[in-house]
Amino acid sequence: MTDYANLPTPPSCVADFCLIPIGTPGPSVSNEVAAVQRLMKASGLSYSMHSAGTTVEGSWDLVMRLIGQAHTLVHQNGVLRIQTDLRIGTRTDKKQHFSEKVSKVESILAADGPTAQKSS
Fold it and tell me: Which residues form the Thiamine-binding protein domain (predicted)?
């Protein structure tokens, strides 16, 4: 019988999250995003900001803690409500940095030759 109370979390994960501050004075959330990016940098975890969120990798517990800290930070900066969209990937067959996933697809596309166009 499985001991659910002591079931461990995965040793590592890649999480892609989009923290959405709700009820800011204007439509821009640049200051909130910048605050979260400062937190990401201070965390020491591997991360990458993109146009619709941030990808971060590390142990499950550290990644979840960091996303929780991002909520706390933005709340402390005066935002009363936050919604976060989150996708998490784990694997047990090998260790793979999130940038390797992108590089793999780029190498496949490069094999298409010079006629392939890059979207902008």
Answer: 15-106
Compute φ and ψ for 79, nearest 5 degrees.
-85, 125
For residue 72, is it within any domain?
yes
Crossing angle (nearest 10°) for helices 60-76 and 30-43: 140
Burial (CB < 10 A; 0-12, 13-18, 19+), residue 45, is middle
Tokens of 41: 């940098």
How confident is the model over 44-61, as a mean pLDDT?
Answer: 96
Predicted confidence (pLDDT) per residue in 58-103, tens digit: 999 999 999 999 999 999 999 999 999 999 999 888 887 777 878 8
Q: How many domains does the chain have?
A: 1
